[in-house]
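[09:14] KT: can someone run the structure on this one? pasting the chain below
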Amino acid sequence: MTHAATGAMQDQARSIPVSPISVSPISVSIVTGFLGSGKTTLISRLLRDPALAGTAVIVNEFGEIGLDHDLIASSDESLLALTTGCLCCAVQTDLARTLLDLHTRRAAGTAAYDRVLIETSGLAEPAPILHALMTDAALAQTHALTSVITVIDSVHGPTTLHEHPAARHQLAVADWLLLSKTDVAAPAAALMDTIRALNPGAEVQTTAEAAPALFFQPRPVDALAARLAELPPMPADHTAGIQNIVLQRDAPLPALALTLFLQALAEHAGARLLRMKGLIGIAEMPGRPAVIHGVRHVVSPPDFLDRWPGEDTGTRIVFISMGMPRWFPARLLDAIEAEVLDETATGAS
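[09:31] RB: done, structure tokens below
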């Protein structure tokens, strides 16, 4: 997000009438981290804890279609109640407008929540979001920034921090640093050295250790302001070459075809695959979509939902990549599916 975009966001926010409903501002915490670091998995787990009941979760994603909102909330509505007593909201225009629109609905009694948790896009440069929360007059009347939590992938963290300035900024502004995937790989010494160099004052835990109280534990805002002031300029082209590829289809996929597709992606496109996530209809399991995740060469085994999250029951997979041809995933899946169906037909004859 550019400084111009930040200014436009602030101008829009000031134009929205706000009806305060309490003297105390609503606490807002930010969860950031690069693509595939594990933000959605962490938030989904902790939202099941009654301690976070009454939380509005705002999801801001990169690309043509989003899946984090579905994966957190199991719905495709813009605002909905979760069974845990929380709300989930997809960013419709910009963050400031979303926060103030939600607050207006809260004042009108159509949305009930006590605090806000914002999950940023994995490619988000966090400074403009934080500046808006700290300096915008309209937001300051109703909201107060509480803390910034950054999730860092213990497996891919060193490579990501080396290659992507946005990841380094996400680390540098954090009050809390949560190391994910430590059950797969212990944090390398080089990763810990980078963390200490970029943000020596941050509290470090693993995502497995993280408790709900951490999300809204107040941290000194002046310390955050100092970290923001020390950030080096973000290259204007920090997302150059990164593209969002969406694969959508109505027909369910044979389970074997999905297995072979994931294996082929990891083998042939892993180095170019910054992030993959999807909901897949499986022919052998009608009504129970598979959830898939992948980061570079590491593709996790599918999980299965009890039902589709919302009315859309079509397969949708999002690939965020550098250098992968846009046609590659669809053609690969079509070829593998055709082969599986042909082998199945041959075996049945």
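[09:33] KT: thanks! The first strand starts at residue 26 and ends at 32.
[09:34] RB: yep, looked fine to me
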